[in-house]
Design goal:
1 helix; 39 strands; ten-stranded mixed sheet; twelve-stranded parallel sheet; single chain; 370 residues; mainly beta
Length: 370
Amino acid sequence: MADKFWVGGGSSGNWNATANTNWALTSGGANNAAVPAGNDNVFFDGVGASAQDPCTLTANTANLRSLDFNGYTGTFTHNASVNIVLQPGNVTVTVRFSSGMTYTLGSATTSVINMPSGGGASPTINLTTNGKTLGNVNICNSGTGTVTVVLQDALTLGATSTLAVATGTTKAVLNLNNQNASVGLLTSAGTGVRTITLGLGTLTLTGTGTVWDTSTTTNLTMTATAGTIKLTGANATFAGGGIAVNNIYFNNASTNTITGANTFADLKADAGGSLVFPASTTTTVTSLTWDGTAGNLITITSSLAGTAATISDAAGTNSVTYCSIKDSTATGGATFNADANSPNVSGNTGWNFAGAGGGFGSLALLGVGM
């Protein structure tokens, strides 16, 4: 293990350049030290005449201990099909990008940052991105230890990039630390022991398709306080697998799908959008925010026509407007009111439809359509 400093001035701008290399053993020192390898701490601190030279990563790094760009204002190019592998051991380390640098991805999906630990090590990685957009990020440990990643500021991944937390049988903890995060997709669908702590911030999912996948919840711990999960991409699927989170907001006017018997605080949808609930399955909520507009109804359906999906709320009143509702059972003790602009299509029970007879009437309670 050693400290390695990017000082530039090598035979090329490649990370792996030789004769001379771009690396020194001290800040601002002479170049031609060995290229960083297993368990080295790597610094781009900008000290030295050529220390702001651009750097291109053309081959996988070798299990770095830490990576700190604080002080660097140059350009770091992370080529496609290249992994930055951080394997710090049983310590707390920093991965930090600088606000003044340029971070260029060769590919949003194959320019990857892997944050594993090895064997029995259980490191903590404090991640600061300073507004840089990352590609795929994998947080995992295939040994007996657990890797923990704690956000120190807002995290942004591209719309096609995936934040993977302990896929397969690996072990990991992701702590958003009350920071906001924007990622294309988040997946944690394995059976390894893992924890996702959402905190008070907003986690925005910007991709399409299955943008949240915790469909296998074995050994998964979700810690959700007052934060919000927001889905902004078109035709998004939230494969919850039966988790409990706080607010969820389908912030798009397309067809969105929910799978699993999940529990939400407030469940919100935008005008013109659709929510497809899992048939013969109960989704539990504390409140509904479904306010469509004239010509832009919110469509509520079941995943199987003719088989109802259940929405359960224990207390209070849920009043929705401009919603087209079909195959929905409302239950749990709360009152569910749909205004006169909300069609009672068919297969509904437990809803009070104002259009069913001039008021919130009994016909809707019996599931009689218009």
